[in-house]
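Molecular record:
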Amino acid sequence: MAFASDRSGELAIWLCDRDGSNLTQLTNLRECAAGSPRWSPDSSQIAFDCASHGNFDIYVVSTTTGLARRLTAEASQENLPSWSHDGHWIYFSSDRGGARQIWKTPAEGGRAVQVTRGGGFDAFESPDGKLLYYAKEFTPGLWSVPVDGGPEALVLNSVRHFWWTIADTGIYFVTSRGSPRPDAPSQLNFYSFGTQTVIQVGMIEHELALSAPSLAVSRDGRQLLTLHLDQPGSDLVLVDNFR
């Protein structure tokens, strides 16, 4: 598994075995908070975003050497990378045109190309490499668009960003039950590419995290990984002689 953690004192990308053993820190970029890791199809690299002084950019790191290279250097915000099925492209969200859209850049570096026109936040390419599925930041729903550009199509109404992931045969997504309780269970659903129908496949005991990608599926399709907050909270501080 690849994940972001600040256990070393700064946000970095870490690796571990499926059972949580053999923890290894992969990245060590000073003054750059790393997150949103995504494995390349051949598992040799991980794409991630890194925020330095409030500006997000896309990086790629080798899983064997730990050497990282930067793919974007715009003054805009670029984050939430994902790979094409053949490993040649990396998709990401960018506001370089003013509004959040999905762009793609060659994995080896090069000129980025805009893919969506009607908004886009987090995205995954279909297993056959023909479509890009994506959610939008402030509009519930899941859309698709041809990877080479074209008109978008609404696929599902009840999907929010960060709460979905793509598998070989369909899309897993979570819908909240709307309870004010933070430990209220959420519904896990599956959308089939073949039948274009949705079925409920289970319940998740805790509400997923809202501020980071919170659902992933193993490559063999047998396990799902979820992210949630164990104990959210805050403190009250009194400041004397405030002016």
